């Protein structure tokens, strides 16, 4: 029972480099989310995918793109990394039941942009 | 606007003492409320949730929380804290938009003295 798996766990980038954060869930959930966690700010939604084939912006989408590759996988891409994107990134998936569903989180990706 | 406030950034309690972590929310409709715990370097684990019904909800690891609509609060409690409870705790409300995202408080870091 892996749940939500994120790769990589750690990454250091230089300003302007690109990278893709990978996320996969094995719980057959329809909805998936990307959050970023910054000190004193809790978690904020970057993008979400309500179902396979759909993606939408969250609160802080600038500088990011996403792809819902299939029902299991939801990736987050930084095209040109900036120091302001230094953060911890969490992927989550939500069980069915409209907005009552519990969200399950991965272990996170700790990203530093120099 | 929907929001969650955790007034205490950091709390220190002695092992065996009781604990109460405060959470206040602002939400127009009936809220779906959650408490998550994050151990150092780990992802978020659900402690408990409130959807409807009994306002006192029980969770894992001996935690409970009470929903008080009149005070817009959902405080987390534990009668006797263990050293392993040291972690960061997040209160969240399930939003009615953006795919059912979670709106998080800023988090409360709990330290436990031996």
Summary of the model, kept short:
Chain A is built from no helices and 11 strands. With 114 residues, chain A is mainly β.
For the structure shown, list the relevant keywords.
heterodimer; A: 114 residues; mainly beta; seven-stranded mixed sheet; 11 strands; 0% helix; B: mainly beta; globular
Secondary structure blueprint with pairings:
The complex is a heterodimer of chains A (114) and B (114).
Chain A (H helix, E strand, L loop, with lengths): L3 E4 L2 E4 L5 E7 L5 E7 L5 E7 L6 E2 L6 E5 L5 E5 L8 E8 L8 E3 L3 E5 L1
Parallel strand pairs in A: 2-11
Antiparallel strand pairs in A: 1-3, 3-8, 4-5, 4-9, 5-6, 7-8, 9-10, 9-11
Chain B lengths: L2 E3 L4 E5 L4 E3 L2 E3 L5 E7 L5 E7 L5 E3 L5 E5 L4 E6 L8 E8 L7 E3 L3 E6 L1
Parallel strand pairs in B: 2-12
Antiparallel strand pairs in B: 1-4, 3-9, 5-6, 5-10, 7-8, 8-9, 10-11, 10-12
Task: Describe the structure in your own words.
The complex is a heterodimer of chains A (114) and B (114). Chain A is globular. Helices cover 0% and strands 50% of the residues of chain A. Chain A is mainly beta. Chain B has strands spanning 3-5, 10-14, 19-21, 24-26, 32-38, 44-50, 56-58, 64-68, 73-78, 87-94, 102-104, 108-113. Chain B starts with a strand and ends with a strand.
Sheet bearing the most strands of chain B, described?
A: 6 strands, mixed
Helix content of chain B: under 10%
Number of helices of chain A: 0
Tell me which protein chains meet in the greatest interface and how many residues each side has: A-B, 30 and 26 residues
Rg of chain A, rounded, reads: 13 Å
Kindly state the percentage of residues in helix of chain A: under 10%
